[in-house]
Amino acid sequence: MVPLWSGIFILKGAQGVLSVDLFEIREIRPGRNSKDFERFKDGRDKHNENTCFTIFYGSQFVLSTLSLGADSPEEAQKWLIGLELLREETLAAPTPVLIESWLRKQMYSVNQTKTNSLSVKELKSLLPMLNYKAPSSRALKDRLQEVGVKKDRLDFEQFHKFYNLMMFEQNEILDEFKREACSFILGNTDKQDASAVLLHDFQRFLIYDQKEPWANDLTQVRELMTIFIDDTMRKTNDPEFTVSEFLSFLFSKENSVWDEKFSEINNLDMNNPLSHYWISSSHNTYLTGDQIRSESSTEAYVRCLRLGCRCVELDCWEGPGEPIIYHGWTRTTKIKFEDVVKAINEHAFVTTDFPVILSIEEHCPIEQQRQMARIFKEVFGDKLLSEPVEHMAEQLPSPTQLKGKIILKHKKLNVEGGVTTRDFRRGQKQGDLEIWDPVDQRWNRHYCVISDDKLYYAEEYEEEEEDPRKYQELHCVEPWFHGRMKEGRLMAEQLIHDYCAETGGQDGTFLVRQSDRYVHDFTLSFWRSGRVQHCRIRSGSEGGHTYFFLTSNLHFPSVFSLIQHYRENPLRCQDFELRLTEAVPSPDPHLQERWFYSNLSRGQAEDYLLRIPRDGAFLIRQREGELDSYAITFRGDGKVKHCRIQKDGNVYLLGTTTEFESLVELVNYFKKKPLYRKIKLRYPVTPELVERFSTNENCSSIYMETYVKPNEIEPSLPQNTVRALYSYQAKRPDELSFTKGALIHNVSKEIDG
């Protein structure tokens, strides 16, 4: 290994030279902590755990690894300390140093001659990496002449000046410093070196505009200015900024709005209840990429925990003989639940001792849930929080009280009575209870438990599994999806024409509709070169999974993912290349929904709802005589209730603060979240549903028989059933033992008694 050059760590070995940008090093982890070491299981690798370490580096979520072994533990420790110091020094380096290092890296990445200069051709290839597009060749040539380029070649100083010109060519910011209200007035800013920001001007700016109390110390102001001054000769006791140097400061981390003193945790502030804090959390922690086809990895958990994340998610599914973790009903890869738990245990408290919360999304059968419980106990041991910190506490424990603890966040069955909540995890028996739903006309499964000789079950329907079709139907709630349109092709063309006439007609403006001819297919209609064109989105099936495509070589699991892809990547055809841009919104999408009624009175709505024997039944109606006013009518707690919805411009307002872009979005939201108390929207009251329940003479009796409190259930005794007045202990083999109050069925009364 050799020293650093321009922020680059260079390693020379038998396989050649490898360089790693210090700014891209995310972690240096001691031990054999990468798969690289698994290649030497044949015994060729003589390095033990104490002499190995791994460098994790890169700019993407999935990091590259460099695994190294030293000759002794002492040498390994020196490297660990040295590399960590260099990494911290790089991160703490002032902004001008970081920019110079980055510019040199970019320069040498395209420089074929490896000299301290680059050609104009090489510069042009570098511009996209700098997120810069020259307005014209002439404008680029003028910029190059401005920095003194001759013979089509730039040295590093000229390249740096070109970068500054490119970054700060917008003068809107500089115009702010020409106003009388500013703490100092800039002179001529058209030429970068024609105006200067003097020491005392800069101090006034920091005190009065930036509100920096430390700037009253002129020495600190002077030291800050010298960091951004390029020319050593100008680093005097009375320094002054050029315009470009002043702009560099404005956009630097040294001018960050964040006060660094709040980056350090004050332990005295960590004694409040856990619910008083924002908690750094991770969703779908196991994924290394997208939610459809990416890899799941234990390393994703390790990275999150070591970055300080305190709440991670485990999506647990039934696996072959043991639980697994992956994004259900997708093509993401699967990892073992036990491997994840072991990784969490090893890395949970490396960064901080504050508690780790495991958010469990449960899809496993009871048997594998028992395996999960066993693994949690065996792996976490005393770290697992299994008992209350304080039994009589009226609030959650504090982060300080929970230091070193791992908390499981998981659904459990609660029955609320009065002010107490009963915990049934230790019930005598638990399982599933099937209850017939007369609205959906199916048996719904509820989690239940027997405790204290009583049967308790979850009142709300628990979804057993995710429906794999839901990922294919994501497009249904998107504004660009118009469903089945009357006169589909003509209507689509009219909508796009009208929308483009209002917005200026950007190429790629589009909508999606169901195909007029093919049942399972869709049509993409879009604006290009002043006219509307149409493409068929075809569907196919492979291995039981439906896919969609525009071109046969690129398949997508859903229409939603197809459209997202072509909004980010161009659609390439023989005649053109086009990226989808603006979506043409569907005009009043609720008009296509069966739960919407445009001409229904309040009384009729209540009559409809009274026929449907379920909380969560709902419809939306337009209020009589009010064009932009609607009402959602629903059943809750056995009664019919109403909520007003007001249309304000392009949004729908429920209550006073909750806004939705459409009534469809509102309904979809409250299908997942409670609208009133614990009531979610579950049963759309369609004309067909009303007709079906109109044939039932006494719908209210169905409702009452289905939803009664457990202590009100008094079933009539079956024939030949008696209740024991006394307990009895069997005295003969053909007798039964029973307790006082037991129900005994199929009893026959003898003639004599």
Written description of the protein model:
This protein has 18 helices and 35 strands. With 753 residues, the chain is α+β, with helices and mostly antiparallel strands. The relative contact order is 0.04. The strands form eleven sheets. Strands 27, 28, 29, 30, 31, 32 and 33 form a seven-stranded mixed sheet that branches. The protein has a five-stranded mixed sheet with strand order 13-12-11-14-15. Strands 21-22-23-24 form a four-stranded antiparallel sheet, covered by helices on one side. The radius of gyration is 35 Å and the shape is globular. A hairpin with a 2-residue loop joins β22 and β23. The N terminus is likely disordered. It comes from Ameca splendens. This is Phosphoinositide phospholipase C. Pfam families: EF_HAND_1_PLCG (PF23329), EF_HAND_2_PLCG (PF23583), PI-PLC-X (PF00388), SH2 (PF00017), SH3_1 (PF00018).
